[in-house]
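Suppose a colleague, Dr. K., hands you the sequence of a protein chain of 417 amino acids and asks what its three-dimensional shape might be. Before reaching for any lab equipment, you can write down a predicted structure in token form. Begin with the sequence itself:
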Amino acid sequence: MSESFRVVSISYKKAPLQIRERLALDESETKAFYLKLKEVFGIAEALVISTCNRTEVYFKSDSDISSEVIKLLAINKGVSSSDIEEYFEIINEESDATNYLFEVALGLQSQVIGDQQIINQVKNAYQWSADMQMAGPFVHRVLHTVFYANKRLVQETSFRDGAASTSYVTVDLMESFLPMLANPSILVLGLGEIGEDIAKTLFEKGIKNVSVCNRTKEKAVELAQSFEMQVLDYTSLAEQLQNFDVVVSSVRAEAPIVKTSYLAKKKSITYLFDLSVPRSIESEVENIPGVVLYGLDEIQKRSDEALEKRKAAIPQVKAIIAEMVSEVANWSKEMMVSPTIQKLKNALEQIRQDEMSRFLKTMSAEEAEKMDKVTAAMMQKIIKLPVLQLKAACKRGEADTLIDVLNDLFDLEKVKV
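The predicted structure, expressed as tokens, is then:
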């Protein structure tokens, strides 16, 4: 039985965050897991993608060992497999698994559709697979085709146009005015999910001079260390707020915590983003000269517009994926017959060499060279049609019959590849 490309996946679609985070793998854990896949199951090709939204194991296997792979992952993370199995999706059909990988890598399966981070995460996963010698011919082919599809997506569709999440819209807006400010200082106030995303996005875009502030200081310190930022003590907010040029607030509070009085003495332009519900910045701050306030409604409107553009481009993206998956499938089928083609070439070459050796002793060097060229050209023409027929049979799913005929005609089982 030939090997098939398969996947086991746990993602935000079925599993809550508290389950997903228990199975997340960093680089060292991912590489160690590759070794386990090889040692325990003899898997030679695999790709492990692990982000905050998903942990997925793609692998080539001649049988369905999905449950065993899930159990191995659970063991490695110190989790009971019975606690997590119900959250997994399993795809054992090669074309479906390949299509799913394309959709994940290009952002169709992301929480924020068209997510631009996922393709870089897939590139990292591919590098780690290659580092562990787990990226065989199939994984290499699929991933290079994925990256080509990503280039086409950017060039041919509007799927990546604009920012479709609150954090990305906010940072995009910041980038429109930051160059106009002299060494601007930025404060991220409140480190819930949105605040943390903002801080992470700023870090990934290389934006410096950022401080974080949170009512729970420990979280602010931890995040600041991860993203190379400063920490503003929450108790100093009233006195220190006027020192910042940009403030992004996503604090959950019953009443606004950023008061108009905190900015009353501010002389330079200040940009405020209120991403909280209810509002955490007093609306009256807009009355202060030089203060610009962006509310959540405006941010969400921009996000929705970008999201609608991306949704409209989905049919184009799926058409690109279908084309690329078909190419991979045709290549994979041809790979199945490549050993037979090579054996046939070797068998015919052996016949040519044997026949030439019978006459070489009676020939001059010039005559031998001519005969070698003539017979080699004949062999190329003789083998051309069987090779074309084999490849055509692959696409029809009928290669097995032709392989059997060629094996019988030329006794290919005895021929080395």
